[in-house]
Amino acid sequence: MALYDIMKTxxxxxxxxxxxxxxxxxxxxxxxxxxxxRIVGGPRHIGMYDDFLGDVVADQWNFTEGTDSATSDGAIVxxxxxxFRLTAGDSAGTIAADGAQLNSxxxxxxxxxxxxxxxxxxxxxxxxxxxFLGFTDTKALEQPVQSASSADTLTTNATDAVGFMFDTxxxxxxxxxxGVATDVDATAKNVGYAPVADxxxxxxxxxxxxxxxxxxxxxxYLGTAMTGAVTPxxxxxxxxxxxxxxxxxxxxxxxxxxxxSSLRV
Length: 265
Known about the structure:
The structure is a single chain. With about 260 residues, this protein is mostly beta strands. Helices cover about 0% and strands about 45% of the residues. It has 1 helix and 23 strands. A hairpin with an 8-residue loop joins strand 15 and strand 16 (about 175-180). The longest helix is centred in the middle third of the chain and has 4 residues, at about 95-100.
């Protein structure tokens, strides 16, 4: 008998208890509720989860910033829960000068299956600011999607990206669910909610193996799925980015946690 063989079956041979009373879920264990959960362990899945505890950020994260001296190095803020803080500059209001970005490696593809991104973040200020969180296709300093400064239209700088965007240059100051696949913009979705300054929100993105994205905010799924959200075969990295839209200070994004997972290939 294997050390952790299922002895008492709860659901076929997929879920049960071993001789020591340990719960075995052969496909992996999902903790949380729909719209706010993560997969724990399981040989079928790969995953990265960071609560930003301690005082040094893990090596798998990359921080990039603009040229303005006021753009502070991204760093862990020591305290309850653990937080990684992005601090933008205060000069020209451009990505090149004032952008602050956190990303990782290009380890993720939608065609792996069950690709997910979840993060809890807050913005210190919601005036004259632009930000994005989700997946993108480069580790370079680039805002994947931003306002085109005309009505509720967008400028997509990434070739492939999917995520949530808030930009006060939009006519409507709400979060938008956005995507772009091989330079073809998906139909953006006004999710109907605006951020509240200094208040945490949880965002989740689920991307199918065919590049269809489903979005959730604070555990609630938002509208219909987005087709053509990202190219399934393109390698992606999780990404967080913030910048001011004018020469103003005080634009920060606090990241409480981030989790990314997909099926193993």
